[in-house]
Design a protein that fits this description.
about 15% helix; alpha+beta; about 25% strand; globular
């Protein structure tokens, strides 16, 4: 029976590899699978015939497979395992006595039974060699780049954009510079292991069955004085005591649910403190002539209006409002806009419900609140504008508007007279940065919908798509623009808040810089006064082709500081077994793929980096003292396939918005089907690591260390703690104590890292997915680290509603 099972398994495996391997070879891929399949079929026949040559051949198959695998991927255990796993397991099976029953009668004397078993030595030796190589490979890490960031303090008192105490966190990136850097140093690599949970709070806002897929907790709390301010996915604004985690107040915006919203989230609120009124000068006193009577005194101006909402929190909502709240009480500031609410749909040429909202906090500067908005990707060309608007922070009156498709017109349009902004212009859904001294606000811009179809874009749209733009704070006039992708056909929005930092050049000159992380993996370091690169930017040839109605840019930019992935090859394909790996290799050759910027197609295209990007809204963290960065590059290819309009089915009942699956692109000639590049077992076709942490010197552009990051504990049915390096979405923070904090990964942990080496030095298990950016603050002499854990719908992490605070033991 065991013999029959043995040759039967070998025959099935050989047949599958022969058919699939022949297909792959015909497509121009590796011949290994075809050769191995044919050899296994011969081996199955030899075992069935009980020929001694069977084990010699199988031993050769094992050693040949090992040699081929080492040639393709070296000592990468996670790549060796799918190539040789089945082969080695069957080899170990063949060592069992029952699998080597007595052979048939010898050929030279059929009447005399041959009592010899199939020889064990060939398979035993091959198994020993394979197992020894596998064990050795387990202790190797060919993807690791060890190193150290420079520890020299280049600037003793760096510009951080803060005009508040070092123990506070007033804006999304701590300040409008977006550095995500705190000068607190109580927590260090030496004591971070002592961090413990000191309080937790649950908002009560949990994901609902009727919510859209991408219902996510991405908020970074603010800390002002003794209070934390947060928002939740369904637009609750909540104030929490910073020392105890007790709720102070909450405000429900009642933004409701809408199945057409692509995102249900809130990344943060904006804090604003009204300037104190200037003291009036004492009037000069002139004696009156004795025959004159003094005029009646003018009534004193009341201070009630000035006192109301002197400290405010502004919250954007999922139904396109901006709400002003009193930071002390949570009551609406009724003098702002329409009874405390600003309606952002005003002036839009189209206003389909659920297509437009704001997920990121606006910036407050010089008496203005400046805000963009998210437009549903790939729903319809009849969409709202991506206009950037500045409103009076007290009254909500429109001060200027900048529309990327009509960039010269910044005077407020006549909404009452029926004027509208440009439909479907490139929008900015992420966070802005501000340099108040230069009077510039920096806007990361996205793309015009549909993302994958570039025909019909205007000259202004082509100039501003997927770029970072500097606008004059006072007027909205454009000062400069820097484009990161030409004629973007891949949804490579500039997703991250620009980071402002003053860099010390090699000649000692200090230059005000802007550091921009991108989805495609390039990190651009620019002079923020002019937009000129400080690190070299070069143009490189890009793949052509695509659909006849469109075109591709002949070249694309690349920064000297880049985390762009190497082009995918057959050797990069992965799976749980050699069979699903073979399917992925076939798909690699069937789909269009010529490296980064392969254009969309009806046949289907591999997009690498994928839609999550190498970097996303979590951005990077920058240490302005050491002038280094910490980032979390992620590598997960996607696929996209254009669908002609007449082949798009009608919406199914209960269908909700999502960036994955079929995007209908109403009004365009094609829809698009998008999703991760997965194998038949729903694991990535690209080999791990899929996620890293990395450190780089911003002055030289050199990546000095890079380590895989995260486990598959929460990606598999069993809690396996394998350190593969997993995808993540979220952002890091740096502290002056030399510790970096980051959640983000698809396993539920908050981690601490040594900034100098990138070594993980602390972790805490979270009750839900940590797809937000942490923050840190000081309260009564104690440094706290706060993490919001609520999960992310698109990456499938555990949903929740937790706000967690960690600190060192109270002495």
């Amino acid at each position: 029976m065991m013999m029959t099972l043995t040759w039967g398994l070998l025959a099935l495996l050989g047949l599958a590899l022969t058919i699939g391997g022949g297909w792959l070879a015909a497509l121009g891929g590796s011949w290994y699978y075809l050769v191995a399949g044919l050899a296994l079929l011969v081996n199955a026949w030899l075992i069935r015939a009980r020929r001694p040559a069977a084990t010699w051949l199988y031993g050769a198959i094992m050693l040949g497979t090992l040699a081929w695998a080492l040639w393709e991927v070296g000592l990468d255990w996670w790549q060796l395992a799918p190539r040789g796993g089945i082969i080695v397991v069957l080899g170990l099976w063949m060592l069992l006595p029952g699998a080597r029953r007595p052979a048939r009668p010898s050929w030279h004397d059929p009447t005399t039974p041959d009592q010899r078993q199939l020889p064990v030595l060939p398979v035993a030796v091959a198994s020993l060699v394979c197992v020894a190589v596998a064990v050795y490979a387990m202790f190797q890490d060919p993807h690791d780049l060890p190193g150290r960031l420079p520890e020299q303090a280049l600037v003793q008192d760096p510009a951080t954009g803060a005009d508040f105490d070092e123990g506070e966190w007033h804006q999304y990136g701590r300040t409008n510079y977006g550095q995500r850097y705190s000068p607190l140093a109580q927590i260090t690599p030496a004591n971070v292991s002592e961090l413990d949970l000191v309080w937790s709070y649950q908002t009560g806002d949990v994901k609902l069955p009727e919510d859209v897929t991408e219902t996510t907790y991405q908020v970074t709390p603010l800390k002002v004085d003794d209070t934390l301010y947060v928002c939740t996915p369904h637009n609750l604004a909540i104030a929490i005591d910073a020392g105890t985690g007790k709720e102070i107040w909450r405000y429900d915006a009642n933004s409701g649910l809408n199945p057409d919203r692509q995102h249900q989230t809130c990344r943060g609120v904006t804090y604003w403190e009204a300037p104190a009124p200037a003291a009036a000068a004492a009037p000069s006193v002139t004696p009156l002539p004795q025959d004159e009577t003094p005029a009646p005194a003018a009534p004193e101006a009341t201070t009630a209006d000035a006192a109301l909402c002197a400290r405010r929190v502004y919250m954007p909502t999922a139904d396109a409002r901006l709400i002003a709240l009193d930071a002390e009480t949570g009551e609406r500031c009724t003098f702002f806009a329409d009874d405390g609410e600003l309606h952002l749909e005003a002036g839009m040429p189209y206003n389909p419900d659920g297509y437009y909202y704001s997920t990121s906090p606006p910036v407050a500067v010089d008496g203005l609140i400046i805000i963009g908005g998210a437009v549903n990707d790939n729903f319809s060309i009849y969409s709202q504008s991506g206009v950037i608007r500045a409103f009076d922070i007290d009254t909500g009156e429109l001060v200027w508007n900048w529309d990327s498709a009509n960039p010269a017109q910044t005077e407020p349009i006549d909404i009452a007279g029926g004027e509208t902004y440009t439909a479907n212009s490139p929008n900015s859904w992420s966070v802005f940065s501000v340099d108040e001294e230069l009077g510039l606000v920096y806007i990361p811009l996205g793309n015009q919908v549909p993302d994958q179809l570039g025909m019909g874009r205007s000259e202004a749209v082509e100039e501003h798509s997927s770029s970072v733009v500097a606008l004059n704070v006072a007027t909205g006039q454009r000062e400069w623009v820097f484009q990161t992708v030409h004629h973007d056909l891949w949804d490579m929005d500039v997703p991250a808040q620009p980071v402002l930092v003053d860099l010390t050049q090699q000649d000692g000159e200090t230059v005000p810089a802007l550091v921009q992380a991108t989805k495609q993996g390039d990190i651009y370091v620019l002079d923020r006064r002019t937009g000129e690169p400080l690190l070299d930017v070069t143009e490189h040839p890009a793949p052509g082709g695509g659909i006849p109605e469109d075109y591709t840019a002949p070249t694309q930019p690349r920064s000297a500081l880049s985390f762009m992935p190497d082009p995918l090859t057959g050797a990069d394909m992965w799976g749980i077994t050699m069979l699903d790996q073979l399917v992925c290799r076939i798909q690699l050759h069937r789909l269009n793929y010529e490296g980064r910027y392969t254009p969309p197609s009806i046949k289907g295209t591999i997009v690498h980096p994928g839609n999550f990007g190498v970097f996303n809204w979590g951005s990077i963290a920058v240490d302005p003292v050491r002038q280094v960065m910490f980032g979390m590059p992620t590598y997960l290819p996607f696929t996209s396939r254009l669908v002609p309009r007449d082949q798009i089915p009608e919406p199914s009942e209960g269908e909700t918005a999502s960036e994955q699956g079929l995007n209908r692109n109403e009004g365009a000639p094609y829809g698009v089907v998008m999703g991760p590049f997965l194998g038949p077992l729903q694991v990535p076709c690209s080999a791990p690591p899929w996620g890293y942490v990395a450190g780089a010197d911003l002055r030289t552009g050199e990546i000095l260390w890079q380590h895989k990051n995260g486990t598959v504990r929460d990606m598999t049915p069993l809690p396996l703690p394998f350190e593969l390096g997993v995808p993540g979405i979220g952002g890091p923070i740096i502290t002056a104590g030399g510790v970096v904090f980051l959640g983000a990964t698809v396993d539920n942990y908050l981690r601490g890292y040594d900034l100098t080496t990138g070594a993980e030095i602390w972790r805490a298990r979270l009750p839900a997915g940590g797809q937000s950016t942490p923050m840190t603050y000081e309260h009564q002499g104690r440094q706290y680290v706060v993490m919001v854990a609520g999960g992310h719908g698109s990456v499938g992490t555990t949903p929740g509603d937790y706000i967690l605070a960690y600190a060192l033991p109270d002495a």
